[in-house]
Amino acid sequence: MSPRYSSQRERWRHIIFGTDTPAGRYFDLLLIVAIITSVLAVMLDSVQSIHQHFGPWLYGVEWFFTILFTLEYLVRLWVSDRPVRYARSFFGVVDLLSVVPTYISLLVPGANYLLTIRALRVLRIFRIMKLAALMSEANQLGNALIRTRRKIGIFMFSVLVVIIIFGSLIYVVEGPNNGFTSIPRSIYWAIVTVTTVGYGDISPQTPIGQAVASLAMITGYAIIAVPTGIVTAEISAAHIARRYERECPNCHRHDHDPDARFCKQCGTGLPKPGGGEP
């Protein structure tokens, strides 16, 4: 590889992946403007009156941005030190998915409307505006959801059982004459009722059925707070753990008791919670 080729690749890598230079910031800002413009074009094209008057023009705009973003994705792969790692990262997957629908629309009409996924690329604004702390908070929320997945899974299974019971009960009480033609359709009603959505396409007509519906709605309100409480407790526990997670300045051990004053491994004095001196 020639030095000139290597220097050009390095220069483009700093522009595309970096925000510490004016060229890098301008590149990301122009990219975000292009993303927003392309998403607006797709949204406007879905409006029938606009599509009738400007359909061909919007179709051309869509293909212009698709080709532009395709070239950008290929250049990102070229300048990246680890192309596979970038391709498998969150932004790498989003960058690829932001161009695929247009090509799929050649075989499946209407797939191009999925291009609104490009809006996810606007998250790069966090890097430009140095809002890394917000990304850190988002990571904390994501980690809390991952750690509570079993509890939430058990909770969702319990809710499913309750919904099946309500659906079966309303089917027996109301029957096909009142619109509850089968247990699956009755379960659909139970889901709509327990989640307090209430479409109103089918509803109980008998006093007993209305009593069951009332109980289902009250149950729905009662269970809304459960997953929120589970995740909130996990976030609070993680926050407390980080607050008391102190590193020994000598052996660099972390897992100390909240009230510990000395390292359990080497006996060195620990810093106070919050980063104070030992």
TrEMBL record:
Keyword Nucleus: no
InterPro entries on file: Ion_trans_dom, VG_K_chnl, Volt_channel_dom_sf
Source superkingdom: Bacteria
Keywords: Ion channel, Ion transport, Membrane, Potassium, Potassium channel, Potassium transport, Transmembrane, Transmembrane helix, Transport, Voltage-gated channel
UniProt cross-references to Pfam families, sorted A to Z: Ion_trans
Transmembrane segments: 26-44, 56-79, 152-173, 211-233
Domain called Ion transport: residue spans: 25-237
Protein's UniProt keywords contain Transport: yes
Gene3D superfamilies given in the database record: 1.10.287.70, Voltage-gated potassium channels. Chain C
Localisation: Membrane
Broad class of where this protein is predominantly found: membrane
Biological process according to GO: monoatomic ion transmembrane transport
Source organism of the structure: Alcanivorax xiamenensis
Bilayer disposition of the protein: Multi-pass membrane protein
Protein name: Potassium channel protein
